[in-house]
Write a structure and sequence with these properties.
By secondary structure, the protein is mostly beta strands. The chain contains no helices and eleven strands. The strands form two sheets. Strands 2, 4, 5, 6, 9, 10 and 11 form a seven-stranded mixed sheet that branches. A four-stranded antiparallel sheet has the order 1-3-8-7, with no helix packed on it. The protein is globular.
Length: 115
């Protein structure tokens, strides 16, 4: 299993970013996908998840209404569209898949919200 995130960067408050996670090594369309984030000095937290077919999504209260998770099963890719970014969204964002009773993580992509 391999997960590779991209799309992070520096953005001003109120701005937008779109993260991508390219997956390989497993049957992507069969598994839920999740985005987590970890801010400096804080524990890793679940941001959003999406079911295997993409029909159901769920979000942390802190990002609800601002972030959108989606997936393209033909491209084995999951996305996180982040709008109206706030200073407190600054973190390393990780893609996650739970496959065959094991957690897999990408290397993470840094998102920095700063004026």
């Amino acid at each position: 299993v391999r997960l590779v995130e991209s799309g992070g960067g520096l953005v001003q408050p109120g701005g937008s970013l779109r993260l991508s996670c390219a997956a390989s090594g497993f049957t992507f369309s069969r598994y839920y996908m999740r985005w987590y984030r970890q801010a400096p000095g804080k524990e890793r937290e679940l941001v959003a998840y999406i079911t295997s077919g993409g029909g159901t999504t769920n979000y942390a209260d802190s990002v609800k209404g601002r972030f959108t998770i989606s997936r393209d099963n033909a491209k084995n890719t999951v996305y996180l569209e982040m709008n109206t970014l706030k200073l407190e969204d600054t973190a390393v964002y990780y893609c996650n898949a739970y496959v065959d009773m094991r957690d897999y993580w990408g290397q993470g992509t840094q998102v920095t919200v700063s004026s």
